[in-house]
């Protein structure tokens, strides 16, 4: 297993992780193009351990290393992800212990985290090989579950959100929201979403929470179907500690979900604490552009009739255009 970016002869070698679904023909075809470009550039393509279905679907594309078997996470120079936001969240798990940025290639979904669309893969790979990209860091959450006795029984992290939810549809859970060690409000609800700016366009958005620009460091707290007069979305500072206590009188088990990928059962009396994690997720950006343009393009927002500033003088493209 290699743990660096130097070959036996001493020359620099790049090891590039490729993450993709194996059950979509267009995604597999795109992965072949990416792997071929990586190999042609003298770099080593790497697949996650256990992706046997993808290996089979790819066919004969040359030698491919395996993450955790042939190559360590620390050796990965870049992760290229073909798919939607869910696939990018999976890739973020895979490279979390390293420093590799993630380049997302959208394969037909909204793909808010993705940087480019599938129809420009070849140009994107040329720029990736030439290292013509910037790296943008996104804050994440450190999340822990503490039982009624005060013992930490589970800890994890989230790029998008940590959600405390009821486990049974027919029951309501009762919670207390706490900010920085002080109680704010208690109520019955279906759950509470604790979101990063990155996740503000995901579950937080669907639950009626605010869209937060990535350059704003903050944490959003959004109750779900709360039975209370004061249960509005909140935005707190990035260093705040947000806690959700499941009251002991709650009838049944709750559940914690992080990014829709990692979960843990919450018995009555459990306490979920979310705060800023020291480990950020790094995204590779080929086309840095205003977040406003990304919102318009991804959500297909209506902007017809906008006149705006003197765009010819300022060199600003019309809203919704560009490659954000």
Strand content: 25-35%
Helical/strand content category:
alpha+beta
Please report the first level of CATH classification, the CATH class of the largest domain: Mainly Beta
Shape: globular
Distance between the termini: 37 Å
Number of discrete domains:
2
The CATH superfamily label of the largest domain reads Probable inorganic polyphosphate/atp-NAD kinase, domain 2
Contiguous low-pLDDT stretches (5 residues minimum) are: 6-11, 320-324
CATH architecture of the largest domain: Sandwich
Radius of gyration: 22 Å
Specify the helix fraction band.
Answer: 10-25%
Mean pLDDT rating: 90
Q: Main sheet: which strands, in order across?
A: 3-2-1-4-5-6
The strand count comes to 20
What's the story with the biggest beta sheet? 6 strands, parallel
Question: In DSSP terms, counting alpha (H) and pi (I) runs of 4 or more, how many helices?
Answer: 7
Quote the CATH topology of the largest domain: Tumour Suppressor Smad4
> SSE order in H/E notation?
EHEHEEHEEHEEEEEEEHEEEEEEEHH
What is the compact description of this entry?
This protein has two domains: about 15-130, Rossmann fold (3-Layer(aba) Sandwich), CATH 3.40.50; about 140-275, Probable inorganic polyphosphate/atp-NAD kinase, domain 2 (Tumour Suppressor Smad4, Sandwich), CATH 2.60.200.
